[in-house]
Design brief:
- The complex is a heterodimer of chains A (170) and B (145).
- By secondary structure, chain A is α/β, with parallel strands linked by helices.
- In chain A, 51% of the residues lie in helices and 12% in strands.
- Chain A is elongated, with a radius of gyration of 21 Å.
- Chain B is mainly α.
- Chain B has one domain (2-137).
- In chain B, 74% of the residues lie in helices and 0% in strands.
- In chain B, helix 1 (2-30) runs antiparallel to helix 3 (47-69), helix 1 (2-30) crosses helix 5 and helix 3 runs antiparallel to helix 4.
- Chain B is globular, with a radius of gyration of 17 Å.
- The two termini of chain B are 22 Å apart.
- Classes of the chains: A alpha/beta (170), B mainly alpha (145).
- The interface between A and B is large, with 52 and 47 residues.
């Protein structure tokens, strides 16, 4: 059962080879996604055009400050949480489009919201993948300017920014 | 006498472990962007790095899992899986320490779903037991390898 230093060396080396092979295969298959993610410069707010965003095919994140600015410039906030939670309190002005029932509401959404409109999706904060998943869906449906506000409801609420109750998914 | 049960436990642990990681890697490889979102929830890596990890981790898991299943390079594969698992455990502990709610209850906002990080931790500890069993019993009844 005792391992010689040669055995340990070989096991470590082979383990590294497994890691390296996995990385090589993974990057070969997904190089575009990774390249886009790194080209997206998510930490630097300005200079991300609609075209850039559309080319990336997945929603990039916006900070709280960026969200406030974008909303002031006409962006639409979209709440991806379920309708009950939306009714209990949501970001003022946000429209409900629950990921859980997206198929039921999507037709109206498509009819009422233009594909060029900047959309900022949020849900229950960093712990919540729904806004991201909804973003992928909306990009699939042809929306060109889709972003995710990862701080979501908790960060907005903690910042003391306006919150509304009531309303319904539509 | 002890040889046979050791061999049995070894093959059982190896096959279960391999199957878990092939499955886990496979479903994540199928939707890398969504997996990147999941990693982002941990708030550990810079945004773009989540995609790098999401692009590569599933393939490492599948590769190591396949090696376990076909009974080749078992200890190196177990080492890789054990190492990854250790990282997962640390990440989960970090999530719990920071009080992050990685299951948002977005679908079912009931309180029970909030134990997800702890449940995942228990599962990962179970996986660690399989890793240790596979590693130690690899030599049972045959040359160390």
């Amino acid at each position: 059962m005792n391992l010689s230093p040669e055995d340990i060396k070989r096991i470590l080396l082979e383990a590294l080879v497994i890691l390296a092979l996995g990385v090589v295969v993974g990057l070969s298959v997904n190089y575009r996604l990774v390249f886009n993610a790194f080209a997206g410069k998510p930490v630097v707010p300005p200079a991300r055009s609609v075209a850039e965003q559309a080319a990336s095919a997945y929603p990039l994140p916006l900070s709280l400050e960026e969200v406030r600015q974008a909303v002031a410039e006409g962006a639409l906030l979209v709440d991806a949480r379920i309708e009950d939670v939306y009714r209990e309190g949501h970001i003022a002005g946000a429209r409900s489009l629950p990921l859980a029932d997206v198929d039921a509401y999507l037709a109206d959404f498509l009819a009422q919201v233009a594909p060029e409109r900047q959309l900022i999706l949020y849900c229950s904060g960093y712990g919540c993948p729904d806004s991201f998943d909804l973003g992928l869906r909306l990009i699939d449906e042809g929306y060109l300017d889709v972003w995710v506000y990862e701080g979501g409801m908790p960060e907005w609420h903690a910042a003391g920014l306006p919150v509304e109750k009531g309303g319904a998914a539509r | 006498m002890s040889l046979s049960w050791k061999t049995l436990v070894y093959h059982g642990a190896r096959l279960i472990l391999g199957a878990i990681f092939v499955y886990a890697g496979w479903i994540k490889a199928a939707d890398v962007a969504a997996f990147a979102g999941n990693i982002a929830n941990y708030q550990i890596l810079p945004y773009s790095w989540n995609f790098l990890v999401a692009a590569t981790l599933p393939y490492i898991e599948v590769l190591a899992g396949v090696l376990l299943i076909v009974n080749q390079r078992v200890r190196p594969a177990a080492l890789v899986i054990g190492g990854l698992n250790l990282v997962f455990i640390l990440a989960l502990i970090s999530v719990m320490a920071r009080g992050l709610d990685i299951d948002c209850g977005c679908f079912r906002p009931d309180a029970e779903t909030k134990t997800t990080a702890a449940e995942a931790l228990v599962r990962d500890l179970g996986i660690m037991v399989l890793v240790v069993l596979t590693w130690w019993l690899r030599g049972a009844g045959r040359r160390t390898n």
